[in-house]
Amino acid sequence: MKTALAAALLLTTALASLAQNHNAVLPYESLDSTAADAAASSSEYLAAKARWHNELAAFFRADQQQFPAPGGVVFVGSSTVRMWKNLGQDFRQVPGVVNRGFGGSTLADCSLFARDLVVRYKPRQVLVYAGDNDLAEGRTPLQVLESFARFANAVRAELPNTRISFISIKPSPSREHLMPQIRETNNVISAYLNRLPDSEYIDVFTPMLGADGRPRPELFRSDRLHMTDEGYRLWQSVIASRLPGAAPVAAPAAALP
Asked: How big is the CA angle at 33 (ends 27 and 39), to the nearest 5 degrees?
């Protein structure tokens, strides 16, 4: 366990350094492997673009109708973001809120589409929620961390002053068997962000647990994966303090046993 934690700490330090200097090479990589990775990423990008064609096309059509002004706040990630239908209304005091969630996506997908869904809008802040689908597909916490680092690196390469916020992976009842991996992923990404300037880890995991340490069922729909309106109100209350201009919101109290 200590060895694993030490390895995670070393990796977070290396990845944070990489995100600050996008021309850097990780200590264990050669220039040749970097070139190979770039080629692989290109093929991965094309495959992902084909897989998410409809969602990307919908975003493009929305941009054609009204392209978001620079300096806004972009939310990007999986279905939890996509299904936040009242996102703009919930943060109506915050100018330029943009929802670029695409359902079923992974943090690996978000890293591939960082330019398409974040950089092109030139936001002052980006909030990303993803990672639980990665774990459900069998990726390890360190692999999820690497995907997030690639996402941060892609954003910082072109938008060095944009604030990067990671919304912690939520404790969905249907994925309670993944709780150890969820906790570890949240911990290593939080440690990574501690070494990355102008970034933050937003903890929604803790307030979504009840006194028994298990997910609060009232925050989740019948599929035990996606959130109810009450779940989104809790998220709104936690995230509001991280968005300049957002009005404070009281979090919904946990139901009494």
From this structure: 135
What is the rounded CA–CA span in Å between residue 31 and residue 155? 22
Give the β-pairing of 125-129 and 163-167: parallel
Return d(Cα 111, Cα 107) in angstroms, integer: 6
Entry pTM: 0.85
Beta bridge partners of 73: 97, 125
Six-digit token string for 189: 């990404």
- How far is the C-alpha of 57 from the C-alpha of 173, rounded, in Å? 32
Contact assessment for residue 128 and residue 165, using Cβ atoms and an 8 Å cutoff: yes
Q: Which residues contact 184 (CB under 8 A, 6 or more apart)?
A: 8, 141
Residue whose C-alpha is closest to residue 146's, from 33, 44, 26, 5: 26
CA angle 194, 94, 245 (to 5 degrees): 70
Whole-number Å distance between alpha carbons of 186 and 184:
5
Q: What is the enclosing helix (H) or strand (E) of 199?
A: strand 199-202
User: Using one digit for the tens of pLDDT, what is the confidence trace for 126-175?
Assistant: 999 999 999 999 999 999 999 999 999 999 999 999 999 999 999 999 99
Residue with tokens 């300096």: 71
The backbone torsions φ and ψ at residue 201, rounded to the nearest 5 degrees and listed phi first, read -105, 125
Rounded Cα distance between 100 and 78, Å, is 9
